[in-house]
Amino acid sequence: NYLAWESLEKTILDFHALSFCNLAVISKSSFGHLAIMRRINPYEELYLYCNGIKRIRNQDDYNQYKYSTC
């Protein structure tokens, strides 16, 4: 199906592009988190949108925000 392929292609492109961003604001989702973990310095200039914008400096910072609260 052409529409399904086009949607998948956009998703792959978004994932790849996000991994090259110097500054990232992500939601509490596996998609954004996994894309950012592909960066050379994954926690450099990383922010989480969760009831405001929070600075994320390491994995513990990310883990303190639960999926159900963001």
Tell me what you see in this structure.
It is a single chain. With 70 residues, the chain is α+β, with helices and mostly antiparallel strands. The protein has one domain. The protein is 41% helix and 16% strand. The chain has 3 helices and 3 strands. The protein has a 3-stranded mixed sheet with strand order 1-2-3. It is globular and about 40 Å long.
State the main characteristics:
70 residues, alpha+beta, 3 helices, globular
| Overall structural domain count | 1
Oligomer: single chain
Mean pLDDT: 94
* Beta content: 15-25%
Low-pLDDT ranges: none
The biggest beta sheet is recorded as: 3 strands, mixed
> What's the β-strand tally?
3
Order of helices and strands: HEHEEH
Task: Count every helix, treating DSSP H or I runs of 4 or more residues as helices.
Answer: 3
- Summing up helix and strand content along with how strands pair, one would put the structural category as alpha+beta
Shape field: globular
Straight-line distance between termini: 34 Å
Estimated helix fraction? 40-55%
Q: Indicate the radius of gyration in whole angstroms.
A: 13 Å
User: In which order are the strands of the major sheet placed?
Assistant: 1-2-3
What is this structure's SSE topology?
Layout (H helix, E strand, L loop, with lengths): L1 H17 L5 E3 L3 H7 L9 E4 L3 E4 L2 H5 L7
Parallel strand pairs: 1-2
Antiparallel strand pairs: 2-3
Helix pairs in contact: 1-2
